[in-house]
Amino acid sequence: MAAKPFAPEEARRTVGALRQPAVFCNMASDWPGLQWNVDYLSRVLESRPIKFRLGKRQERNVPLFETQCSYTEAKLQDFVAWSRGQTASPSEPFSDYLLSEYWAYADYKYIAMLFADKASMFEDIKWEDFGFPGRDARDSTLWIGTEGANTPCHLDSYGCNLVLQVQGRKRWHLFPPEDTRCLYPTRIPYEESSVFSKVNVVNPDYSQFPAFGQAKPHVVTLKPGQVLFVPRHWWHYVESIDPITVSINSWIEMDIDDEARVGEALTKTIVCALKSAGSPDNGDVWLNPTEAEVSSHEENLLYLNLAVQSCLEKQKCHCNKSTAFKSGTAIRLGKRDFRGQAKRTEPAEEGADSHEPAEISTVPFGPNLVAVPLKLDEQAPQCQAGGAQDSRHRVCAPSSPSSQLSCGFGDEHSCPRKPERGEAEVTTFSNKKRTGGSHRFSPISTNELLDSLVHPEVIALVTKILMDKQN
């Protein structure tokens, strides 16, 4: 058996040093999990029902959020037959959905729950090869979809992400944290640990979201056997581009997530308080299907206090350490009612109590580690293992250097796109006098108020104030 391009310790140091998305090649070629195609999984799961999200195939310039999708429960065999165009009887779960009009996605399926009675399968996924001993399929999530299935553009509040592609190809559109203002963040629909973008990044409406023209998309088509690393707080939109896709991911918690949990508890307290209030504009479906129910203000305030207390205690424990990753469980909390279920503690690395692996000065990019490039041309990164070159339409045309404005947190501007010749300048409160136009006031809705109150920058600032007061 050929040696891996990176030893576990080297892979973990590399993951800790990466500040941009990158694709690892030839690191999972011997994993039994690469056999987890839909035919294999349908035999293993037999008659177990799985919840599928169905989205309408249509051209649109706004995101299709999960609150706008249809849902059905079906056996994986039914899904496979439907995805291959086999005729379904009127009683079958996909009978109301034409494959030509809908895509289907079984997303966020926690393997620890899905295969609870087949524990031997957990060892088929070997994240220990990336320097995380004891991490396997129990700490992983399964995704099965048809062509067109997608996840709305969002950032994850916690940790970083490793993604193994098993079957078919997925295209990832990734944006750095400094593009946050350019992506118009929102917490409606509300989902714990996910900040959504209002922009349809593959078909943007520049008249409504002009700042998106300054975003810096990194795009990659992930092929079977490859592992994608998504750094902390990188935005991502993911779409399946083959008839059937299967992928497996694991969210890696980090020490810095302790403070992020305070911010998430604060966000939930504010969102639930305002959206639960009696108001004519609060009739929208604002709670994501991933969330079980609306918790009370008392419950949210209790959780906020517990998050602050826990963060303070952990800061004291780690004040003399400089660690990146947690040594305990890294299952993402708050998704699909998974909190507290199948939680376990990983065995610590030898010597992990005293130090983390030493930092590396340079990232070893090469044929086995390929950086995901900016979308400036149609060239997709190629691994030594091969794979077809892929191309599609551009996300947006690059602007001239003179019109580039920073989208970093704390910037004064909101990344406006420089108007082209003959194009009207957008009138805002700040430029009202300069343009000579009159601003037509429209009432502020609850959701618009929330977009300001729970904006990532605002939450980060209030979190700091709360922590400083306690300190």
TrEMBL record:
Cellular compartments per GO CC: cytoplasm
Looking up InterPro entries in the UniProt record yields: Cupin_8 (IPR041667), HSPB1-associated_protein_1 (IPR013296), JmjC_dom (IPR003347)
Which stretches make up the JmjC domain? 88-267
Q: Region annotation Disordered: residue ranges?
A: 336-364
- Entry's localization field: Cytoplasm
Question: Gene3D superfamilies from the xrefs?
Answer: Cupin
One Pfam family per UniProt: Cupin_8
Q: Does the keyword Cytoplasm apply?
A: yes
**Keyword Cytoplasm attributed:** yes
GO MF annotation, one: 2-oxoglutarate-dependent dioxygenase activity
Extent of Basic and acidic residues compositional bias: 336-358
Alphabetized UniProt keyword annotations: Cytoplasm
**Main location per the UniProt record:** cytoplasm
The parts of the chain that form a coiled coil are none
Q: What does this protein do?
A: May play a role in cellular stress response.
PANTHER family hit by this protein: HSPB1-ASSOCIATED PROTEIN 1, HYPOXIA-INDUCIBLE FACTOR 1 ALPHA INHIBITOR-RELATED
User: Which protein is depicted?
Assistant: Hspb associated protein 1
